[in-house]
Amino acid sequence: MPNPRNVVRLHLNEHLSPRLAQQLRKHGFDVTSTLESDLVSKSDAEQLEFCCASQRAILTFNKDHFSILHAEYMDKGKQHWGIILSTREPIGVLLHRLLRLLNSVSSDELKNQVRWLNEFK
User: Fold this and answer.
1) Phi and psi at residue 33, to the nearest 5°
2) pLDDT tens string for the chain (121 positions)?
3) In this structure, are residues 34 and 41 in contact, taking their beta carbons and an 8 Å threshold?
4) Does residue 21 contact residue 32 with C-beta atoms inside 8 Å?
5) What DSSP assignment string belongs to 19-45?
6) Is there a contact between 59 and 13 (Cβ–Cβ < 8 Å)?
7) Does the pTM exceed 0.90?
8) How far apart are CA 48 and CA 89, in angstroms?
9) Within 13 A of 5's CA, how many CA atoms are on the CB side?
10) Ramachandran quadrant class, 82 (left: phi over 0; alpha: psi -120 to 50; beta: rest)
11) Within its chain, how far is the Cα of 110 from the centroid?
12) Residue 114 gets which letter from DSSP?
């Protein structure tokens, strides 16, 4: 089902706190997390497949694996809803940067892109 407002729907990978998802929801964003979605034992490829099926971008600290997955998707002509890479930061810093990203980038703009959250300081 298409996103009517073209707002990024987000999934937080395993090493991100579900508290961050809760905070983003308080700001009105549609956010899931690996821990809340019972995906803890799933591979990075399965995480990205989950995100594709639910039209979500994924936020991860795992630059190496997700960069490879992005390249594989592009080589195969597959689409994803965005991969957002970040360095490990305190939850307040991540929240601030995510709010800047989510309020300035549309779902269409993020589709098939890899972006660094650090761009949104």
Assistant:
1) -135, 155
2) 344 579 999 999 999 988 999 999 999 999 999 988 888 889 999 999 999 999 999 999 999 999 999 999 999 999 999 999 999 999 999 999 999 999 999 999 999 999 999 999 9
3) no
4) yes
5) HHHHHHHHTT--EEETTTTT-TTS-HH
6) yes
7) yes
8) 22
9) 10
10) left
11) 10
12) E
Report the 10 Å Cβ neighbour count for 77: 6
Q: What's the pLDDT at 35?
A: 86
Give CA angle at 38 (55, 96), nearest 5°: 60
Q: Where are the domains of the chain?
A: 10-120
CATH number belonging to the domain at 10-120, selected among 2.60.40, 3.40.50, 1.25.40, 1.10.12: 3.40.50
Closest CA to 95 of 15, 27, 1: 27
Question: What is the C-alpha to C-alpha distance for residues 86 and 89, in angstroms, rounded to an integer?
Answer: 8
Task: Give the pair of three-digit tokens for residue 108.
Answer: 């269409």
CA distances from residue 23 to 49, 52, 70, 73 in whole angstroms, order as listed: 25, 23, 28, 31
